[in-house]
Amino acid sequence: MVLAACAGPDVRPTNAPLIFTTGSLPPRAAADVGDVGIVLAFSGGGARSAAFGYGVLSALAEQASPGAKGRVLADDVAVVAGVSGGAVLASYFALHGRAGLDSFRRDFLGRNVEASLRTSFSPANLLRGYRGGVNDLSGFPSWLDTNLFHGATLGTVNRPDGPRLVIHATDLYNRTPFIFDRASFAAICSSYDDYPLAYAVAASAAVPILFAPITLRNYQADCPVDREGGQRPPSPRQRQGASLVERQYRESLDRYRTATDLDYLKLYDGGLVDGIGTQSLLHLMNRQAPQPLPEARARRLRHLIFIIVDASTRVGGDLSRTPESPQAMDTIVAATDAMINIPNLQSFDALRRRLPGWRDEVVRWRCATAAPVAPCRDLDVRIIRLALADVTDPTGARRILSLHNKLTLKPEDVGFLADLGRRLLRDNPGYRDFLDRLPAR
Questions:
Q1: What percent of the chain has pLDDT over 70?
Q2: With contact defined as beta carbons under 8 Å apart, do 389 and 310 qualify?
Q3: Which of 201, 218, 331, 365 is the most buried (most CB within 10 A)?
Q4: Distance between CA atoms of 251 and 239, rounded to whole angstroms?
Q5: Which are the catalytic amino acids?
Q6: DSSP code of 302?
Q7: In angstroms, rounded to a whole number, what is the distance separating the alpha carbons of residues 41 and 285?
Q8: CA-CA distance, 126 to 401, in Å (whole number)?
Q9: Cβ neighbours of 112 (radius 10 Å)
Q10: Rounded alpha-carbon distances, angstroms, from residue 11 to 8, 135, 198, 218, 267
Q11: What is the CA radius of gyration of the chain?
């Protein structure tokens, strides 16, 4: 047992080099979409986040859309973002759409995912953790591919009739998000379309020590150029007046191309730098309009709502009931929640402040586009936040606190969280006002 642990985790690079670079990003094919759009962001939080977000998606799947007959609001999701446990749900939904909701509850929320992982407190696992991670590629990434994604890649999920997927992990070298998109893969001169979706999701959920990092190789030293003499894809332009957070992210993309000691990227849980996915959305919004929206949808939109689904645990617990020092695990969990809570709130506030200016940029882009489908200035954009921390019922609040960041939940807890997500969306005043403004079918 000790010898097996001494071997170290499997952290071989999981990406392939880019064989040919065109110098431009391929446009997403047009799709038959209506004038209603939804941007969803699911926070981290293991299966708790996935179950809570599943309830939100279920409510959208039960609400008729003003588009074609039989269409529901879940079909109007234009962008779906996720972190850690939220990335599992976001990726599955981007791959299968609302038709996959029932199978997601069965194949992920209804399964004992942790049975396939090393989770015991043992000398062998302590040694594995010391050497880089208790679980490696043979654990969660393999389980995700076998049970959920079945060989799907980032290219597979880029369907013209589906939402754009935005998931990220944490690049430890740069202390910034690594967003799994074409621009990030171009920055390390790596192939995007054939990268396994399971590995991207596993990277977003790779809690340090419990999981080994997902490793990417930086191929910039041997990056090819366009066969017709063009240049490598340029880094996204930096917006004038960019914040320090935005500047650091842009500089990280440049560093992939220039740093002489950045041969391998070690990717861990995305919640370390962006626990609710809003910061990654902001990074994309600060590129050229209409990002992060797919162009076909952006041209037609008249009604757009951002729904931020935050499954962070509530304030409270038993730490303050006695003068005794909390046990180690309770301290680690509470300290981690404390470190990410305020940055999550700040990130949401930053997104809310950015929306009016971003809406104007999208409008200018639409009006400059030849033959826009919708009246170019007719665009209503709003944002709401659904949070477990806002549950005020004492019984429900205590139950939420007992559901820690695990990958497996009891069936009754899945139902409890899903019902909360469904109810909080339906009762949200901003969402109800959004529905009231939609045209009648």
A1: 88
A2: yes
A3: 201
A4: 12
A5: 84, 269
A6: S
A7: 14
A8: 27
A9: 10
A10: 9, 10, 15, 14, 10
A11: 21
Measured CA distances, 219 to 187, 189, 222 (Å): 9, 5, 6
Contact 136, 6 (CB under 8 A): no
Q: How much is the pTM?
A: 0.91
Determine the Cα–Cα distance for residues 415 and 397; give it in Å rounded to an integer.
15
DSSP track, 365-434:
HHHHSSS-SS-TT--EEEEEEEEGGG---HHHHHHHHT--S-S---HHHHHHHHHHHHHHHHH-HHHHHH
Residue 27: predicted pLDDT: 42
- ∠ CA 39-41-45, nearest 5°, is 165
Cα–Cα distance for residue pair 176/115, rounded to 1 Å: 32
Dist CA 77 CA 68 (whole Å): 15
The answer to whether the CB of 230 falls within 8 A of the CB of 22 is yes
Cβ atoms of 355 and 383 within 8 Å: the answer is yes
Q: Which of 399, 391, 394 is nearest to 416 (CA)?
A: 399
Q: Please give the Cα distance from 1 to 118 (Å, whole number).
A: 13
For 126, the token pair is 């302590």
CA–CA separation, 423 and 196 (whole Å): 34
Closest listed residue to residue 232, CA positions, set 199, 269, 191, 189: 189
Positions of the chain with pLDDT under 70? 1-8, 19-33, 225-240, 314-317, 328-329, 332-333, 370-374, 441
8 A C-beta contact, residue 23 and residue 233: yes
- C-alpha distances (whole Å) from 404 to each of 118, 123, 208, 212, 417 are 17, 24, 16, 21, 12
For residue 305, the one-letter residue type is I
Residue written as tokens 């309830």?
Answer: 55
Residue pair 133/210 in contact by the 8 Å Cβ criterion:
yes
